[in-house]
Design goal:
By secondary structure, the chain is mainly beta. 3% of the residues lie in helices and 55% in strands. The N and C termini lie close together (11 Å).
Length: 139
């Protein structure tokens, strides 16, 4: 049964936070289900989010809600098991809008995911995300 796989024990890291203001724009806002909060990256050529799960998972979907004007034209989902290097699972191509977008993921069993955001629509390379959901099953 497909379910949200991010839980309280999931460790997350991000490439950057706008002005290092983690209280207002930090990574915790990716998962808080609050329509008023978001993760806002600082500027740069590419941005990323790493998720370390407390157990092995099988990913089936990725859901992302960007702020229009601050999305990415291309994304790459990578995964790894244990201390292995990240390997590409799938490329995805978000639209530049405010809608919750769902991307199918070929079944992959991993402990860690890295979501790469490349070719940002913002001139400075900033990305703004209101919701990030990983759906699938615990293994």
């Amino acid at each position: 049964m497909t379910q949200s796989l991010v839980c309280a024990e999931t460790v997350s890291r991000v490439s950057s936070v706008l002005n290092r203001n983690t209280r207002q724009f930090g990574k915790k806002h990716l998962f808080d289900q609050d329509e008023e909060t978001c993760w806002n990256s600082d500027e740069g050529p590419s941005q990323w989010v790493i998720l370390e799960f407390p157990q092995r998972i099988c990913v089936s979907q990725l859901q992302i809600q960007f702020q229009g004007g601050f999305s990415s034209r291309r994304g790459c989902l990578q995964g790894s098991q244990g201390s292995e290097a990240f390997n590409k699972i799938v490329d995805f191509y978000p639209e530049d809008n405010n809608s919750l977008q769902t991307f199918p993921v070929p079944a992959a069993e991993v402990d860690q995911l890295k979501v790469m955001f490349e070719d940002a629509t913002d001139f400075f390379g900033r990305v703004v995300i209101y919701h990030l959901r990983v759906l699938g099953e615990k293994v």
